Amino acid sequence: xxxxxTVTSRCFxxxxxxxxxxxxxxxxxxxxxxxxxxxVSAYLSAFVAKDQGFFEKRGLDVELTLAANxxxxxxxxxxxxxxxxxxxxxxxxxxxxxxxxQVALAATNVHPDTTQSGILARTGLExxxxxxLVGKKVGVPGLGGLLDVIFRKWLTDNxxxxxxVTYVETSxxxxxxxxxxxxxxxxxxxxxxxxxxxxxxxxxxxxxxxRSLPVGTVLSVFSAKGSWVKANPDAVKAFQAAIAEANxxxxxxxxxxxxxxxxxxxLPPPVVAGMAIPNVEARxxxxxxxxxxxxxxxxxxxxxxPDPTKLVVPWTAG
Length: 318
Known about the structure:
The chain is an alpha/beta fold. The protein contains twelve helices and ten strands. Strands 7-6-8-5-9 form a five-stranded mixed sheet, with helices on both faces. Helix 2 (44-51) packs across helix 9 (233-252), helix 2 crosses helix 10 (254-265) and helix 4 (89-97) crosses helix 12.
């Protein structure tokens, strides 16, 4: 007859085997998601949801992949190389007008946002007004993106033909170096890179051109292919819930949240330490896209009028 120690050891081994099998089964059933983002603090909700395990506990295996700029995101989602992207609303609306099968799952952050953004001119130049930018080369993180579109609107609102400015697509990490080298005359930037440029004294503030946006304007979205959303309703609900939980965590834990920004933007923690936390918001409504549809139409970026009610996935996360 087996002794008590032998029986106990066998029970422990059996329990361990069951636990391992359960863990393996759970890992195998997690929905794999590649989330493509650009290196700005606006996507803090996703950074925190990953680092704090909010995705994982809801059955999502999310891999965050850094994109060189926002221009590649819509194409990556459409091709299936990424399941979720982070386009600015202007890029998202243009994609919808062009026939892309993409819908918005959630918002990232909304205006008014406490993070710094604006037009920064190269140190040594005398650029103080919109008129001073005529004939200049201005670096934008993505042609047709939010910062680019609102910059052109700012020029127009200030009496300048925006076609008299040369636009150079420039990734955020390159902006400070290109200003210093004199290859561009100004940039439109957002934190944490806005603060880095000012700190390194390669540029100075001309105008906070995004401050004129209407209150509640969505500044970016999490998007996915419509066919993927239909095939993965549970994953969509889990994603929305994880982002909502991350936002609660962010508001209560600014320190760890900044650590996540530093990790995913690849900037030194001291650079991120003084950064304001974005005005994060998860739930997105069709009305929040109407402003962007109108702006894109005014600038000739779209030819039709996309129906915002068909572009936003209903909120199912509670």
